[in-house]
Amino acid sequence: MGLLEALWVALQALRGNPLRSVLTTLGVVIGVAAVITLVSVGQAARSRVVGEFASLGPDLLWVLPGKAEEGQQFATQEGRFTLTLSDAEAIQREARAVAGVAPWLQTSIEVAGGGRREVTTVIGTTPSYLELRALRVHVGRFLSEADEQRRKRVVVLGPALARQLFRSLEQAVGRQVVVNGRAFQVVGVLHPQGQVLGVDLDDRAYIPFRTAQQLFSVNYASFLFVRAQDTASVLRAQREVERVLRREHGEEDFTVLTQSQFLGALDAILRVLTVALTSIAAVSLVVGGIGIMNIMLVSVTERTREIGIRKAVGAKRWDILAQFLVEAVAISLVGGVLGMGVGLGASWAISARLLDQPPSAGAVVPVVVLAFSFSVLVGVAFGVYPAWRAARLDPIEALRYE
């Protein structure tokens, strides 16, 4: 029996039990679609996040609390807040390769204004943050040195938060909002920044750093933004920041990362997350393969007399083996094709919804090819044993089977 004839016989057998064939194929569809969706969305998300951070500029440094262990980029010492406003001032004063420093303190809290209430992210920072992040003010102004020194209760809103509270960006300036039981005057609204992984960067409120420390009864900074004079000065700025902080703290309980180091660590974390999710999805494809093997074993049992008749009229072991193996592969092929369609549609929809951009073709094509190939491999691997069992049946015993 040739391959085409074996394929025709296999398809006829599948048509004989449509419901069972559909349910078996569904397991492969789900597995292939899950692999394609998770890998495609994971790669698109990694590309988007890394791109967003890279857009901050190659001359940016991050100062994080806690000392990273050997071989790690990020500190693992939880609950330690070792950075302060005086650290930022010392760096600005003494590090000559540094163009600017901005401390950062954030919390999620309810903000009320215009008769409405919204839970949002409130960030305490200094006036230098506007230039460090290259942000633009849409209307009004940003925080000033006078606001910082006098601990004024003024706030700059993101455009999304301003619309939620006051319906209009222009009408928000001059109005009051209540943060943690204290009244703040709105002095400005920022230009839109967009979203990253569903996190709205425009749904934020910025207040003076000292005011935030007083409002939330803390004396630390979550981390520090530092910008070097230029790209060529980044490593020099990193050494100077480390020298200043070691002297200020008396120990190295901090981590200074350049933009490239931070992006490398972030990319590594996102890669591990993508691999972990893909591995979980691949399990569902293996489960689909187990379903194929189970159904094929049932099929061998049901068609024992058929196998006996075919052997009695001259069919060889290879013919029987090919018939059942092709049948198993046909299920995985159909499931793989349908899974590709479902996976591509799901990955496109999720990426467009969460990331505002579809996954790139260069990233999707290898994933589709890999997932489809894996589905065929699963069909072969889990179809071999039932096919081998069918091929080994004794024709006399098979003809006697009831």
Question: Are there runs of 5+ residues with pLDDT below 50, and where?
Answer: 73-79
Head-to-tail CA distance between termini: 26 Å
Query: Radius of gyration, rounded?
Result: 31 Å
Strand content: 15-25%
Number of strands: 12
Structural class: alpha+beta
What's the helical proportion of residues? 55-70%
Mean pLDDT: 83
Relevant terms:
402 residues; alpha+beta; 6-stranded mixed beta barrel; two-stranded antiparallel ribbon; 12 strands
Description:
This protein has helices at residues 3-16, 18-54, 85-94, 128-132, 145-149, 159-166, 169-172, 209-216, 234-249, 259-302, 304-312, 317-354, 361-391, 395-400; strands at 60-65, 98-113, 116-125, 137-140, 154-157, 176-179, 182-190, 195-196, 199-200, 204-208, 223-228, 254-258. It is 58% helix and 18% strand. Helix 1 packs across helix 12 (317-354), helix 2 packs antiparallel against helix 10 (259-302) and helix 10 (259-302) packs antiparallel against helix 12 (317-354). The longest helix is centred in the C-terminal third of the chain and has 44 residues, at 259-302. The chain is α+β, with helices and mostly antiparallel strands. Strand 2 and strand 3 (116-125) form a beta hairpin. A six-stranded mixed beta barrel has the order 2-3-10-5-7-6, surrounded by four helices. A two-stranded antiparallel ribbon has the order 8-9.
